[in-house]
Design a protein that fits this description.
The protein is mainly alpha-helical and 165 residues long. The chain folds into two domains: 40 residues, no CATH class; 118 residues, Orthogonal Bundle (Arc Repressor Mutant, subunit A), CATH 1.10.10. The protein has seven helices and three strands. It has a three-stranded antiparallel β-sheet with strand order 1-3-2. Helix 2 packs across helix 6. The N and C termini lie far apart (55 Å). 13% of the residues are buried.
């Protein structure tokens, strides 16, 4: 696969490795695996890793504002704007000024995006199956909670400090 040629797959890790090492390896392998799945399902010509957050938010509820997308995905506004631009270039979304609040922009899926939705859902199911393989449902739920905690810890550390009065 083209993507594998550009990116090395991280080697297996040991449970004794530091958490930051494990997270880095998970991320590297996740991106390579996701790209492979997108290529295998013929989606790579339209969708890149990183677009899924917004696509799946819009699959759930279409015609959202940029602010809605930011809130639903938890991504930074600049990341949402950049991803929306990429989705628009691919012909997967359209942007229209809100009829009531002229400052707001509504994002809607195109027919092309809707036609790709079943294949995107299949990739998500495959990803879930591979990522949760060997975990009991309880252990998978606990892992999601633990990873959410790690994200929260990082967010708390990275958020800007309150300005002094």
């Amino acid at each position: 696969m083209r993507y594998k040629e550009r990116h090395l797959i991280a080697t297996p890790a040991k449970a004794s490795d530091d958490l930051w090492v494990l997270i880095g390896r998970v991320y590297l392998n996740y991106i390579v695996f996701l790209q492979e799945q997108l290529e295998a399902d013929g989606l790579a010509e339209h969708i890149r890793p990183g677009m899924g957050h917004l696509l799946f938010a819009l699959f759930t509820e279409d015609n959202l504002t940029l602010r809605d997308l930011t809130a639903r995905t938890g991504l930074a506004p600049s990341s949402v704007t950049e991803t929306v631009q990429g989705l628009e270039r691919e012909g997967l979304i359209s942007r229209v000024r809100d009829a009531v609040d002229k400052r707001a922009v509504r994002i809607s899926l195109t027919r092309k995006a809707r036609s790709l939705e079943p294949r995107c859902q299949a990739v998500a199911a495959q990803m879930r199956e591979v990522l949760e393989h060997g975990f009991t449902p309880v252990a998978a739920r606990r892992l999601r909670g633990d990873l959410s905690r790690v994200i929260h810890n990082l967010h708390e550390h990275l958020k800007p400090a309150d300005p002094e009065p």
